[in-house]
Specification:
The chain contains eleven helices and no strands. It is mainly α. The longest helix has 20 residues.
């Protein structure tokens, strides 16, 4: 499905694939109805109440996570449709936050966001959208990046901040 986010011929399908990918990756697994009524206490419910809830993202191999990150960054940097590009930015943000919460660095992200700040108005808007929603990245961003965004000629970029 991840490759479909960049290869689907229809822009609506690429946008839908990005949204679906995000929702599937971060939806907590649901206990089956047969597990809920059997026994006095099931192991999945006791383990989820004591710690963070695991998602599909937590079960991906490192190689799969790396490929997924490359795919969504490719969508972010190469997509021309505003609708799809904003969905890619939202997916990048969710992946980044999940990675950082789990102590996983994503070195390519900062460079991709900084390159987007210097791109088209749509790219700049998406970059600031990511920076606004990903607090870990904000600490490493020079203040002049935000000053430049607030003075941007495109209203959409200024409103993102």
């Amino acid at each position: 499905m991840a490759n479909f986010t960049t290869t689907a011929p229809d822009e609506q399908m690429r946008a839908f694939a990005l949204v679906l990918l995000r929702r599937l990756l971060f939806r907590p697994p649901q206990a089956s109805s047969s597990d809920a009524g059997v026994g006095s206490s099931s192991a999945p419910s006791s383990s989820t109440s004591s710690g963070p809830r695991l998602t599909l993202y937590d079960h991906l191999s490192e190689q799969t996570r790396d490929a997924l990150e490359k795919t969504v960054l490719h969508a972010l940097s190469n997509e021309q449709s505003a609708n799809v590009k904003t969905k890619a930015a939202d997916t990048v943000t969710d992946l980044a936050n999940a990675s950082f919460q789990r102590g996983r660095p994503w070195p390519a992200l900062q460079g991709a966001v900084f390159r987007a700040v210097g791109g088209s108005s749509l790219s700049r808007m998406c970059a600031y959208r990511i920076l606004e929603r990903c607090q870990v990245l904000v600490t490493d961003v020079p203040s002049e990046i935000f000053v430049r965004g607030l003075a941007d000629s495109a209203v959409e970029v200024r409103l993102t901040l």
